[in-house]
Amino acid sequence: MLVRLCLGVLVALPAFALASTGQAIRVQQPSPGHYELTATFDGSTDVETAQRLLAPEAARRCGKQPYSLGHYTFSTSAPAAPGNSEATPQITIVQQVICGASGSADPIRPQQNDDWHPGPADQEIIRKRSLAYLEAKDRGDFKSALAMVAEPTRGMMAHSQWQDARRAFNAAAGPVSSREVIAISWYDHPPGAPPGWYATADYTATYASAAFYCGYLAWMRQPDGSFAMIREDEGKLTPSQAATIPPDRMAAVRAQLGCKR
What we know:
Order of helices and strands: EEEHEEHHHHEEEEHH
Strand content: 25-35%
Number of strands: 9
Shape: globular
Structural class: alpha+beta
Strand order of the largest sheet: 2-3-5-4-1-9-8-7-6
Number of helices: 7
Largest sheet: 9 strands, antiparallel
Mean pLDDT: 80
Radius of gyration: 19 Å
């Protein structure tokens, strides 16, 4: 099974109510008007599909109040090879719901209203910061990695389950052979997001053991001019998983995990 993990914040998503799927949804209420919905859905690894399937429960919990879908985390699994009848695509999502809110539920601080635009020096800052974050994760230094993350996202990544899973991957994969940021893109106030500048850094890393990981990091420019990581989307393959995949299928598997190359 291929595993993909995303931690981050929601930028914009319309709330569509779909028919009940019969899946059990675990509901917690951290505070009045704030719910956390957790569910696993079979047959899909699509985040928006999972969020739409949670919409009826969100509407039921908030009653007559409008609601917004806020921060979320998810993990997905899918067959590593076609025709594997024993493996079903699956997604597990933890979704925050805010009752009585409108627009974005993202509490990240607003940006300064200035005429700043990214230049070559900022491109290099994002590249170095992304590599430093990945290197910290690779050596199991989660304290250093989390120090680069914005507060709302940091809370999702501080739990021991995420850190334990990363330690297990590091132990199985062994030393990193290469680690590279392959593309950086900039966005000025994308739709549905708090005003400001954002950068995404696509990355990949390989191991002598044939393991690899790939994905992207999203960074948001802070009022002081620094950058904080607000989202991570990563797919990875352990050595044992890589050993089961024919060489002519590897490119397709990398694409399935979201690798840019």
